[in-house]
Amino acid sequence: MIVDRLTNCALYENLSPRMKTGFEFLKTQDLQGLEVGKYPIDGDQVFALVQEYHSKPIEEGKYETHRKYIDIQYIVSGRELIGCTNVGSLEPLDSYDAGRDIQFFAGQGDMFLLDAGMFAVFFPEDAHMPCILADGPEAVKKVVIKIAV
């Protein structure tokens, strides 16, 4: 997992050409003006999902992992807590869904605050619980860049 501000993304662009492509999208688009939906960047190799929602109580959260994609989760507006831990420390709640590239888990992890201008990178071994309220329910706009492993 990596947590930082978008202003520092050049530190991580050399991890892979696809990672650099994802960060370029975040730096060059009018993210506030993007509508909710899917935006192709480089076919199925790199694409963006724009989301808007209200943060929720931790009791409604579940840890999730992805096997085919790395997530760059960038907060455009609002803020949320996100849990993170190694997937090996959690109990599966279901089987891996290859079509949706997701599996859900139960257990404990460390929580951190992500606010506007910040991103988190989650690799396949990083189970994460996004969308959790900080001090109360809050409107959040997020762009998730999906990067093929």
Walk me through what this model shows:
This protein is mostly beta strands. It has one domain (2-148): Jelly Rolls. Helices cover 8% and strands 49% of the residues. The chain has one helix spanning 17-28; strands spanning 2-5, 37-42, 46-54, 63-65, 69-77, 79-86, 91-92, 103-106, 110-115, 118-122, 126-132, 139-148. It has a six-stranded antiparallel beta sheet with strand order 1-10-5-12-3-2, with helices on one face. Strands 4-8-7 form a three-stranded antiparallel beta sheet, with no helix packed on it. It has a three-stranded antiparallel beta sheet with strand order 9-6-11, with no helix packed on it. The protein starts with a strand and ends with a strand.
CATH class: Mainly Beta
Distance between the termini: 15 Å
Order of helices and strands: EHEEEEEEEEEEE
> In the residues, how many domains can be counted?
1
Question: Which structural class do you get from the secondary structure elements?
Answer: mainly beta
What is the strand tally?
A: 12
Known CATH architecture:
Sandwich
Let me know the CATH homologous superfamily.
YhcH/YjgK/YiaL
